What we know:
Layout: H1 12-23, E1 29-36, E2 50-56, H2 64-77, E3 86-89, H3 95-104, H4 111-121, E4 124-127, H5 134-145, E5 152-156, E6 165-167, H6 168-173, E7 178-181, E8 191-193, E9 201-203, E10 206-213, E11 220-224
Parallel strand pairs: 7-10, 8-11
Antiparallel strand pairs: 1-2, 1-5, 3-4, 6-8, 9-10, 10-11
Helix pairs in contact: 1-2, 3-5, 4-5
Amino acid sequence: MDDTDNKTSRxxxxxxxxxxxxxxxxxxxxxxxxxxxxxxxRIQYTSHNSSNVVHLLGDGDVDLAALADTAQAVMLADFQxxxxxxxxxxxxxxxxxxxxxxxxxxELVCQAEARQxxxxxxxxxxxxxxxxxGVIGALAGVGLSGTGxxxxxxxxxxxxxxxxxxxxxxxxxxxxxxxxxxxGKTLKDGLVETSGKLRPAFREHQPILFVxxxxxxxxxxxxxxxD
Length: 227
């Protein structure tokens, strides 16, 4: 989903978590990821031009239209004046959707093309108000999420419940696959200062928390946010 907020409202990330909560009544929710798109003055975005994707675990018999209806109801119940929300629901992510997502990170793309790609790919793409330009970011976000190599998690397991300094094992236990240094070393022990905000990167199709040494303490690692 994308473009669901205005300059004074809650962000799309919060709404995505609300949609995830509603969908969790019928589907196992794996997580919610954030994907950064092109920042350009010609694009009408609210703050950072990022989209959010809810990842569900299910089989091939899922009714995508019913799933989309549930997500749409939550989004419209919290519609923000001046926003241009878009919703994309897909069972599979096609190479064309992935290519569109990559392009949306570096160049201007249009709503008409997004709708054409969605039609060819068999996914659901809905504009829910305003100019409906949010369909661009919604489709791009799903495409990027399909790579398993883009963005970061704003919700995964119980990571949002962690506070203060936590052991690497505690972080893994909460649902994050690995803790790694920026240069690629996997940590098995040590302490990480969570600061109440762990946002593991979406890499290798799993949530990986990247960290860097603290300047104040050699025994504490600090989380790093990656796009």
